């Protein structure tokens, strides 16, 4: 299982980081997803910035986790950029795992990355619909 | 470049994982070579010079091992390594005395082969008490006292822990076991040849020794079995009755010679090595901790072997740090448990929070570690911990004043 840490495509996401950082979580155009738990050794924060046409124009991530977790969330931010919200919701963990050649023991990293995308987009959607927010609060 | 012969490649990583294994000391290799080439006889062959010279070498090695631990050479049995020695000690003693004694005491931080041997004995109908350890990794002697039962046959407590380097009070444990007339076994794989260990001063009845932890060859170890008072054990391996009937099988002379030489060299170098390793360890820990906040050293700061340093770097996951430190050979916890996804059971036993348990790295400093290697490791460690913290949502939250314990995390 340690061999996964040495996969060049995994290491590349750490050594040549793209999209590490934060967007303004208070902005209405930004959706923030925070998934995982420190006790499990995996926490991903993924943020998207969506323009007025519903297209994701920027994305950032921060991850506490192994190399595969970092690579999965990094790849997720690369893939969501340029997609619409609905297109981004179609990104599957299996695609991430295949792209990074993740071994079975690391598949949970790609699953968490898919969760992070969905959480970020759900947060964005919630911000756009104040009525839904009221309904959520009452629920 | 590596043995795959790819020619041009990255230089090999610095080796800072001596608890996993050690390189052969050149003096040990020198001692072994004749027995790997010209003197290839079976030491149990009685009828010709090949056997006699091989036997002589084996017996010399036996004496070298005995001298290191204050034992008689008749009390040293060669094995394939400390795992076999641990199996022999625990299963062998338990089964021999099973008609009257059914209880064993050990600790929660023992090596897997000790814990697994105990588990397999439980399946045979024995009862085992797994003593907890205090936050510093050391057992509570009062709890040990309280754990004895009328039918306890054995206490097994390791001398130095392979993950966190903590030293158990072996002398005191020996005294307590003597008072209760219970045999005391210690897995001394990480201690022998590094700190003084004397089976009589410490009242040890059985001891496991590993060749490849003390700059000797892999595939060989030894078990010390006290003769006075006599410790009996049921052999694990049946056969021609070699090694006093306790461990049948041809003793691999070159390996035994290597183990003996490693013990002799260790005895000579122990004081010098200990001083040097202590200085380097101090250097590593001080330099890292002065530059990086929120670093915890796991295990007692005083009662330890200095060459085994286990640090937790809060808000940074251990495997990612190992990946980042790709030109240093390190590990996060024990090599033999790396197949599972769970964080170390040793860290859990000392009460480490689960997120910190995922953030730990073990640094090993040994006889051949140089100051430059330590300085390089420190530099890279500081650099990459800082970088990984920049990438960490936990670090970001803490910087913003968030109490991580107040967050409701999602489950997957």
Structural descriptors:
heterodimer; A: 139 residues; alpha+beta; Sufe protein. Chain: A; three-stranded antiparallel beta sheet; 3 strands; 47% helix; 19% strand; B: 412 residues; alpha/beta; Aspartate Aminotransferase, domain 2; Aspartate Aminotransferase, domain 1; seven-stranded mixed beta sheet; 12 helices; 12 strands; globular
Describe the structure.
The complex is a heterodimer of chains A (139) and B (412). In chain A, helix 4 (93-100) packs across helix 5 (107-128). Chain A has 6 helices and 3 strands, in the order αβββααααα. Chain A is globular, with a radius of gyration of 15 Å. Chain A has helices at residues 8-15, 67-80, 85-88, 93-100, 107-128, 130-138, and strands spanning 30-37, 42-50, 56-64. Chain A is of the alpha+beta class and 139 residues long. The mean pLDDT of chain A is 90. A 3-stranded antiparallel sheet of chain A has the order 1-2-3. Chain A has a single domain, classed as Sufe protein. Chain: A, CATH 3.90.1010. The two termini of chain B are 41 Å apart. Chain B has helices at residues 26-36, 49-69, 82-96, 112-123, 141-147, 170-180, 253-291, 318-324, 345-349, 354-357, 371-390, 393-399, and strands spanning 14-15, 76-79, 103-107, 127-131, 152-156, 183-187, 206-210, 221-225, 295-297, 308-313, 328-329, 360-364. In chain B, helix 6 (170-180) links the parallel strand 5 and strand 6. Chain B is 39% helix and 13% strand. The radius of gyration of chain B is 23 Å and the shape is globular. Chain B is α/β, with parallel strands linked by helices and 412 residues long. The model of chain B has no long low-confidence stretch (mean pLDDT 94). In chain B, helix 2 packs parallel to helix 7 (253-291). Chain B has 12 helices and 12 strands. Chain B has 2 domains: 26-266, Aspartate Aminotransferase, domain 2 (3-Layer(aba) Sandwich), CATH 3.40.640; 270-401, Aspartate Aminotransferase, domain 1, CATH 3.90.1150.10. The interface between A and B is medium-sized, with 36 and 29 residues.
């Amino acid at each position: 299982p340690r061999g996964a840490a040495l996969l060049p495509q995994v290491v590349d996401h750490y050594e040549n980081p793209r999209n590490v950082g934060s967007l303004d979580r208070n902005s209405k155009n930004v959706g923030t997803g925070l998934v995982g738990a420190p006790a499990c050794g995996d926490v991903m924060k993924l943020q998207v910035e969506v323009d007025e046409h519903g297209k994701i124009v920027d994305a950032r991530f921060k991850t506490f986790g192994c190399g595969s977790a970092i690579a999965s969330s990094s790849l997720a931010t690369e893939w969501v950029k340029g997609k619409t919200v609905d297109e981004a919701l179609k990104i599957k963990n299996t695609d991430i795992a295949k792209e990074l050649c993740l071994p079975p023991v690391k598949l949970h990293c790609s699953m968490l990355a898919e969760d992070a995308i969905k959480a970020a987009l759900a947060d964005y959607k919630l911000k756009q619909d104040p009525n839904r927010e009221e309904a959520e609060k009452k629920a | 470049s590596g043995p795959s012969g790819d020619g041009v490649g990255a230089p090999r990583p610095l080796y800072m994982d001596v608890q996993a294994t050690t390189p052969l000391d050149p003096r040990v290799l020198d001692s072994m070579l004749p027995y790997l080439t010209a003197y290839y006889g079976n030491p149990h062959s009685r009828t010709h010079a090949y056997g006699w010279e091989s036997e002589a070498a084996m017996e010399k090695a036996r004496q070298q091992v005995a001298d290191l631990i204050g034992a008689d050479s008749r009390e040293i049995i060669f094995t394939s390594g400390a795992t076999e020695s641990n199996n022999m000690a625990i299963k062998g003693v338990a089964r021999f005395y099973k008609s009257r004694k059914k209880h064993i005491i050990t600790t929660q931080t023992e090596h897997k082969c000790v814990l697994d041997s105990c588990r397999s004995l439980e399946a045979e109908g024995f009862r085992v008490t797994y003593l907890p350890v205090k936050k510093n990794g050391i057992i509570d002697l009062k709890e040990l006292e309280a754990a004895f039962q009328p039918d306890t046959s054995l206490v097994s407590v390791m001398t130095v822990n392979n993950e966190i380097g903590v030293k158990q009070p072996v002398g005191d444990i020996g005294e307590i076991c003597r008072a209760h007339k219970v045999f005391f076994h210690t897995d001394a794989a990480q201690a022998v040849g590094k700190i003084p260990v004397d089976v009589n001063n410490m009242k040890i009845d059985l001891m496991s020794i590993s060749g490849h932890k003390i700059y000797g060859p892999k595939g060989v170890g030894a078990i010390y079995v006290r003769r006075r008072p006599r410790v009996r054990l049921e052999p694990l391996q049946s056969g021609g009755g070699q090694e006093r009937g306790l461990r049948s099988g041809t003793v691999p002379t070159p390996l035994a010679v290597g183990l003996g030489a490693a013990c002799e060299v260790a005895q000579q170098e122990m004081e010098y090595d200990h001083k040097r390793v202590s200085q380097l360890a101090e250097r590593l820990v001080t330099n890292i901790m002065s530059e990086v906040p929120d670093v915890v050293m796991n295990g007692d700061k005083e009662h330890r072997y200095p060459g085994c340093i286990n640090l937790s770097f809060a808000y940074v996951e251990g495997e990612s740090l190992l990946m980042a430190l790709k030109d240093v050979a390190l590990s996060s916890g024990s090599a033999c448990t790396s197949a599972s996804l769970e964080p170390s059971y040793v860290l859990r036993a000392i009460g480490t929070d689960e997120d910190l348990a995922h953030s730990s790295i073990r640094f090993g400093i040994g006889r051949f570690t140089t100051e430059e290697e330590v300085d390089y490791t420190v530099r890279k460690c500081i650099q990459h911990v800082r970088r990984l913290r920049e990438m960490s949502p936990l670090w970001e939250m803490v910087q913003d004043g968030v109490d991580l314990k107040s967050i409701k995390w999602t489950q997957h």
